[in-house]
């Protein structure tokens, strides 16, 4: 799959920060906390429950602090991750955050069991969950409050309206969306400014190219989750492997560098429980891809 829209946008240098909502600078590689849950052996794969706090809590806290030491200033979580335990973990590891890191959380998904993730967009529920997130994160204002999923049972305007009300009350600095289309972004933007969009996007899954283009044009951060997945691009004879060998990097680093070079508004949030992988991921910020290497990976 070749994206003709981005064959001329690759550069040989990568900006390392992006201003969320134009006024909150954050690192262009953030950290996603979804996998810091349960026992280490239960964290991997699409069936991972993300149901309880991490059994290796001390190691998880150390990893979050190490990420901050290495320059990560955007930490992403959700009230649905381990039923709020992820937010509590961030607070234990990093609070007070002011002037050091920005915390993004998501509301709008209910977890009736370890295998269920159910959108719930009732405005009163969204406001309640934001209040609980404020308590767990130990803050009076959330840096980036995101609608985790659009609930088709309620008008999107009502769901965005609930987040706007929280923003007007001083409880949310910026508002973001997750897993949305261009049309939904435009509907939300008619109600309130949108600072970020968090959609699934990686070398293997590029269904949201139109969203990338729209957010770039609007100055909105595009935050890909599950950013390192490569699918067929991950083979030993793949273009990713070839470019990695050329520049002395790992395939995972090249996959992240491809995203960083794809558009300056892209902020990947890879998650890991390994300090070594954390440092490896952040090393992608130092990679320089030529236009030809970018096209080679992108093909």
User: Can you tell me the CATH architecture?
Assistant: Alpha-Beta Barrel
| Radius of gyration using CA atoms only | 18 Å
How would a textbook summarize the main sheet? 7 strands, parallel
- Name the beta content range: 5-15%
> Which residues sit in consecutive blocks of at least 5 with pLDDT less than 50?
1-12
Determine the number of helices (DSSP H or I, runs of at least 4 residues).
10
Beginning-to-end CA distance, first to last residue: 5 Å
> Using DSSP, what is the number of strands?
11
**CATH fold category name:** TIM Barrel
- Spell out the CATH superfamily: NADP-dependent oxidoreductase domain
Q: What is the overall silhouette?
A: globular
Lateral strand order in the biggest sheet: 3-4-5-8-9-10-11
- What is the helix fraction of residues, given as a range? 25-40%
Secondary-structure element string? EEEHEHEEEHEHEHEHEHHHH
Mean pLDDT: 94
Class of secondary structure makeup: alpha/beta
Instruction: Tell me the number of structural domains.
Output: 1
Structure description:
The chain has 299 residues and is α/β, with parallel strands linked by helices. It has a single domain, classed as NADP-dependent oxidoreductase domain (TIM Barrel), CATH 3.20.20.100. It is built from ten helices and eleven strands. The protein has helices at residues 57-69, 85-94, 123-137, 156-168, 182-189, 209-218, 239-247, 251-262, 275-282, 291-298, and strands spanning 17-20, 24-27, 31-32, 74-76, 102-107, 109-110, 118-119, 142-147, 172-178, 196-198, 221-222. The protein has a seven-stranded parallel sheet, covered by helices on one side. Strand 9 (172-178), helix 5 and strand 10 form a beta-alpha-beta unit. Helix 1 packs across helix 2 and helix 7 (239-247) packs across helix 8. It is globular. The N and C termini lie close together (5 Å).
């Amino acid at each position: 799959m070749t994206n003709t829209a981005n064959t001329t946008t690759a550069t040989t240098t990568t900006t390392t920060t992006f201003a969320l909502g134009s006024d909150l600078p954050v690192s262009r590689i953030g950290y996603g906390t979804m996998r810091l849950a349960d026992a280490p052996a239960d964290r991997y794969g699409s069936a991972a429950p993300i149901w309880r706090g991490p059994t290796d809590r001390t190691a998880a806290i150390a990893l979050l602090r190490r990420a901050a030491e290495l320059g990560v200033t955007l930490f992403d979580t959700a009230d649905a991750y381990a039923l709020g335990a992820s937010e509590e973990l961030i607070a234990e590891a990093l609070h007070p955050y002011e002037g050091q890191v920005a915390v993004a959380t998501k509301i709008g998904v209910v977890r009736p069991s370890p295998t269920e993730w159910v959108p719930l967009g009732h405005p009163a529920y969204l406001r309640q969950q934001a209040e609980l997130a404020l308590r767990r994160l130990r803050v009076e204002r959330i840096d980036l409050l995101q609608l985790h999923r659009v609930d088709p049972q309620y008008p999107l305007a009502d769901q965005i309206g609930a987040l706007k009300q929280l923003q007007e009350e001083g409880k949310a600095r910026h508002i973001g969306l997750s897993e949305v289309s261009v049309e939904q972004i435009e509907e939300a933007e008619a109600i309130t400014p949108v600072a970020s969009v968090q959609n699934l996007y990686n070398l293997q899954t590029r269904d949201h190219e139109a969203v990338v283009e729209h957010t770039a044009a609007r100055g909105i951060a595009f935050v890909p989750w599950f950013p390192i997945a490569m699918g067929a691009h991950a083979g030993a004879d793949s273009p990713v492997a070839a470019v990695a060998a050329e520049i002395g990097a790992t395939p995972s680093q090249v996959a992240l560098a491809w995203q960083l070079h794809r558009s300056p508004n892209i902020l990947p949030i890879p998650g890991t429980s390994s300090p070594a992988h954390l440092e490896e991921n952040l090393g992608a910020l130092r990679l320089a891809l030529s236009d030809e290497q970018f096209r080679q990976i992108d093909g």
